[in-house]
Write a structure and sequence with these properties.
Order of helices and strands: HHHH
Shape: rod-shaped
Largest sheet: none
Helix content: 55-70%
Number of helices: 4
Number of strands: 0
Strand content: under 5%
């Protein structure tokens, strides 16, 4: 009686884990474009944990057959080993997805497309080329306006 209760509880727990992990894969996949490599690692971690949960479901159905074939010690040892491997790899991938570097968002150009600028050549970067021109220290003249000619400095008006 106790054995069947534990089997039912473990099956319910594994089933809830499967639902949770499928939801996680869907949510992470929806954010994949923004998260980049971190989302791929997160999806991989969820898939590995999902395989571990499926293994737990199968283990609940096949536990008596495993005990008959391997004995109680062998069946427990094998199930703990396989579950631990799935768990460790899945959690490691999820942690890797959280700490993975994300690309900074690009500003949207016209029509929502990301603006792409060609990379500057190394000699352009060193010389300061490819930069906008600086404003002159004096104000610019209005079109059509001309300054009257100025006499040379140090000389007075000539008569």
């Amino acid at each position: 009686m106790v054995s069947s209760s534990l089997t039912v509880i473990s099956l319910i727990t594994a089933f809830l884990n499967v639902i949770l992990l499928i939801g996680g894969v869907v949510l992470i996949a929806m954010r994949r474009r923004e998260q980049g490599r971190g989302a791929v690692l997160g999806i991989s971690g969820c898939v590995v944990l999902l395989l571990g949960a499926v293994f737990s479901l199968l283990q609940g159905f096949l536990q008596s057959a495993l005990v008959d074939v391997l004995g109680i010690g062998g069946a427990v040892g094998l199930s703990v080993l396989v579950s631990s491997i799935f768990h460790l790899i899945g959690v490691a991938l999820l942690i890797g997805g959280v700490v993975a570097r994300r690309d900074p968002p690009r500003p949207a150009g016209p029509q929502g497309w990301p603006q792409q600028q060609p990379p500057a050549a190394p000699w352009e970067q060193q010389q300061g080329w490819n930069q906008p021109p600086q404003q002159p220290p004096y104000p610019q003249q209005q079109p059509g306006w001309q300054n009257p000619p100025q006499p040379p400095f140090g000389q007075g008006p000539q008569a």
